[in-house]
Amino acid sequence: MNDPRLAELSRALPDLKLTTDSGDLEHYGRDWTRRWHPAPLAIAFPATVDEVQAIVLWAFAEGVAVVPSGGRTGLSGGAVAANGEIVVSLDRMNRVLAFDPIDRTLTVQPGMPLEAVHKAAREHGLIYPVDFAARGSCQVGGNIATNAGGIRVIRYGNTRQWIAGLKVVTGTGELLDLNRGLIKNASGYDLRHLVIGSEGTLGIVVEATLSLTSPPPPSQVMLLAVPAMDALMRVFAEARHRLTLGAFEFFTDRALHHVLAHGAQRPFGEISPYYVVTEFDAQDEAQQAAALELFEFCLGEGWVTDGAISSSEAQAAALWRLREGITESLAQYRPYKNDVSVRISSVPDFMRDMQALLDAEYPQFDVVWFGHIGDGNLHINVLKPADVDDDRFVAQCEHVTKLLCDTLTRHGGSISAEHGIGLVKKPYLGSVRSEAEIALMRGIKAVWDPAGIMNPGKLL
């Protein structure tokens, strides 16, 4: 600890785990974007709320920027520390603090992995329904910071719907206890919802009270091969009419190609341009029959060409792998990612315009897209060829992102559906928010974080 500021922090907090090891700086100074070289001052691993407060108070006094760090599975550069910041990793704050069977809430520390939250809820016969493929490595604090959505938004909504209370350390080191788990609380501004989705720019979440719910009825998973883009929303409309949906996802043949290369099993003999994987309630014979009737109807209309329905948990997992394995299968290519959303009713027109744009601008690149089509969220992954220079690749992709923003604006959409703004999408915030909205955001940040130390340069 050659830096006298760090020496002072160590003296003030002798039990604090603090490291400047080069490997730790590299690991904890970046997220999944891999586009910025990490260069933090140090990594702190607080174990208590008091330690988090003391770190922020020290940072406030010393003028050191603070980057909160969870599982670092973010895709927008929101957890990057590239300018001498202190990274506050919440890895050690990873426990369940309380369960209330009457309120059906689980109070946890922010470093708890989402998968561990799922397990803790199941032990009480309940579920925490927010879910996505990175459940094993992402953390609750990061989910809250980005208002993460996932694969079952169509049924359960985003993270925001399941946060009953938060404790947050602001940029001045003050501890706020927000909403306290109340269902009804008409006592002024609900500051809890400012923190959700704020990407660590207002403060550090140090405790979260999560609402739990009853497990859904037995379900089945159905995979459908869809021959044309126009048919996707027709299948969705018919499925929503006939079934009680828990999820409705889609992916392209290119996505399937990479997942199969990564070890998944081919579902059908013939390749289709598009695929749908949907999960639906199947607690009785009538609901199971409705799924078969849906398939037969869509087959008769020419909207699907093949299908499969799970008859066991293992088969359901195998079908879900075709969708959930996409991101992992693409990681080796360091893809440039867009995460966009439009109103569900605008999806067909937007997808046509988007496909035309991608075909025109990326003729030489492999473009993989998939998404939560039932809530209007699409993910676009552009894979970098091995012989293309990183800077030239990113420059081309950013040029296309500007054009994509124009397309989104015409359709009333957003450049960030669930990954946040971070560093990657900051130049495009004005395509979603008005100047007046951004000015208000800046004013809010100035109140919560007057020294501007909380995750600076991100979002705003």
TrEMBL record:
PROSITE patterns documented for this protein: FAD_PCMH (PS51387)
GO biological process: respiratory electron transport chain
SUPFAM superfamilies: FAD-binding/transporter-associated domain-like, FAD-linked oxidases, C-terminal domain
Keyword Ribosomal protein belongs to the record: no
Tree of life domain: Bacteria
Annotated keywords: FAD, Flavoprotein, Oxidoreductase
Entries under Pfam families matching the protein: FAD-oxidase_C, FAD_binding_4
Cofactor or coenzyme needed: FAD
Domain FAD-binding PCMH-type: 36-215
Keyword Oxidoreductase: yes
InterPro entries listed in its UniProt record: FAD-bd_oxidored_4_C, FAD-bd_PCMH, FAD-bd_PCMH-like_sf, FAD-bd_PCMH_sub1, FAD-bd_PCMH_sub2, FAD-linked_Oxase-like_C, FAD-oxidored/transferase_4, Oxid_FAD_bind_N
GO molecular function: FAD binding; oxidoreductase activity
Family statement: Belongs to the FAD-binding oxidoreductase/transferase type 4 family.
Protein's name according to its UniProt entry: FAD/FMN-containing dehydrogenase
Organism: Luteibacter rhizovicinus
Species classification: Bacteria, Pseudomonadati, Pseudomonadota, Gammaproteobacteria, Lysobacterales
